[in-house]
Amino acid sequence: MPFVWSLGSILGPLIGGALADPCKNYPGIFSQRTLFEAYPFLLPNIVCAMILVVGILIGILFLEETHQEKRYRRDIGLEAGRKILSLLDRQRGLGSYDKLRDANFEENRLLVEDDAPPGYRTAEGSPRYPSSRSLSPIAPPYTRTVLAVRSQQRGVPPSVQTAFTRSVVVHIIGYGILA
Question: Tell me: the pLDDT tens digits for 63-114?
C-alpha cells in the first residue's frame, strides 16, 4: 500500500500537469472555443475518472472474494468477467483462459495445503526442537503467529495485541500523518 500511495503521489500530478489546459498545450489536437478552453482542467479529471472506472470494473469482474464467510457465495461479477474472457478467447481461438484457470487452481491448491513442503521435513530433530510438531515441548517463536492464525480460523477472535503489531501501528500513524 505505501508503494501504491507513493506511486500515485508521483504519477497523479504528472498526468494532471501534462493534460491540464489542453487548448494551450496541444493546439493541434484541441481547438479553441471548446469545452476544454472553458474548463482547462476537464481533461485530467476525465482521464482520472476513466482510470477509476477501469479499476472498479477490474475489481468487480476479475477479483475473487477472500473473506472466509463470503468466499463461496455466488459472485455475479466474477462470472461475468469469466464469460467476457471466454468470449475473447473464442474470438482469438486460443482457449488460453482455461489453461490459465487450471494453472491458477493447481497453484492455489498447493498453497492452501496444510502440510509443509516435503523439502522442509527432516528425519533428524534440531538440538532445541524435535522434527515432529506434536512432540515439541517448546514452541518456536514463529508458531505464535501460526497459532494466532489457526485460532482465528476456528472462530476465536484475535486479541488486540495480535492484531495491532508494531508494523500495523506504524502504518496507521503514517497514513494518519499523510491524511
Answer: 988 888 888 889 899 999 999 988 888 777 655 555 556 666 666 666 665 5
| Nearest one of 39, 108, 96 to 71, comparing CA atoms | 108
Whether residue 43 contacts residue 71, with contact meaning beta carbons closer than 8 Å, is answered with no
What are the cell numbers at 1? 500500500
- Indicate the pTM of the whole model: 0.50
Cβ-based burial of 36 (10 A; exposed 0-12, middle 13-18, buried ≥19) = buried
Helix intervals (H) in 20-132? 22-25, 35-38, 42-62, 76-92, 96-112
Whether 178 contacts 5, CB under 8 Å: yes
Note the Cα 133 to chain centre separation in Å.
33
For residue 155, count other CB atoms closer than 10 A to its CB: 7
Closest CA to 7 of 72, 61, 65, 51: 51
Cα 123 to its chain centre, rounded Å, is 38
